[in-house]
Each structure stands twice: as structure tokens, then as C-alpha cells.
Amino acid sequence: MVNNSEMHKIGYAKVSTPHQNLDRQIGALRAERCDEVFRDKGSAKHIKKRPQLEKAIDTLGTGDVLVVAEWDRATRSMSDGVSIIDRISERGALIKVRDKPHLDLTTPIGRGFIAFLPAMAEDDRERILRRANDGRKGARASGSSVASPRTDHRQWEAPQRLEAGDSARSIAKFLGVHRTTVLRVLST
After folding, report:
1. Per residue in 6-22, pLDDT tens?
2. Domain shared by 110 and 18, yes or no
3. Is the pTM of this model over 0.85?
């Protein structure tokens, strides 16, 4: 159990564009009595575009709590959210999400719920993979190409280079594609 007198609350708020306003989220974090608040403005497509989230996590010590104003602003996907929670947990800290009471790991119910998140993230990944594979099967069935558009016009070059003695890795580098793309083309 966390000793509330020693824990620090670190707040995090985010909006997607510089023109959006953080006031509502900052108000929620102030109501939570956060010791410090980190703010990001910009797309969450890559973790590098959330530098203040990184700083907030790095600030956490054992027993501290990261308070997130809005979960969907802080994360890109369920897998991303689980990764963030894992990183916070590795630091011996907890997370409390203001707009998702079930993601309040400062409570027994929240800690119990969190045990299900990795399974939910795995299900999410499997669903995405299944949909991608179904799309590829559908494309093949209709006679469409499943290769990326930038490689379609160069597919003839891979076999020729292989016959000339080039490796799949060097062919991929020359064509500007991944090695598995070259191997897939060569196997058809």
C-alpha cells in the first residue's frame, strides 16, 4: 500500500495541436493536487513526440503517482497504454487516470483490473493482424497485388540481381525495401 504522505503526484496533460487548449485537463490535475504538471502539444504518433510524458515518467520515484487527465490523449493504442503502465510499474510508481476510474492503480479495484490489460492488448494485436491478413487474402483473391506500391515496378529486378549473385539483404538495400519484402517477392 502507498503511503500518501510521502508520495508525489505528477500530472500529465496533452492536446494534439498547438491551437487546442489544455485548461480543462490542467484544472482536473490541479483538483488532484499534483505537485508538478507536464504538458505536451502535438500528435502522439510516435513516443518521441511526447517528450513531456517521457519527462513525467522519468520524474517518478517509488510510491509516486502519475495522474493522467485524459487517457486517450496520452496513449495511441491499448498496447501503447499497457507499455506506459508497465514502465511506470517498473519504477515502483502507480498511475491514476482521471477519466478512467478503472485505471486508478492507487485502489485495489484498479490494481485488479490492470491484470487484464496485457491480455486485452494481445487481443487487440491479434485482431489487427487478423484484419490485415484478411485484407491480403481478399486482395490476392481479387487478383490485386499485395506488395507495396513502391516495390511493384521493381519486382522484376530482385530475381535478376539474385541470379547475378547479390544477397537478399543487398537487393533490399538497393531497392529501398525490407529484406523480407525481397524474400517474399523471390518466393512467388
Report:
1. 789 999 999 988 888 99
2. yes
3. no
Same domain, 108 and 151: no
Catalytic residues: 16
Q: Looking up cell 510516435, which residue turns up? A: 46
Q: Select from 62, 91, 115 the last residue of a domain.
A: 115
Domain shared by 16 and 100, yes or no: yes
- Give me 168's grid cell: 537478399
Residue 2 lies in a domain: no
pLDDT digits (tens, 9 = 90+) for 7-66: 899 999 999 888 889 999 999 999 999 999 999 987 655 445 789 999 999 999 999 999
Which of 61, 92, 115 is a domain's end point?
A: 115
Number of domains present in the structure of the chain: 2
Q: Domain of 104?
A: 9-115
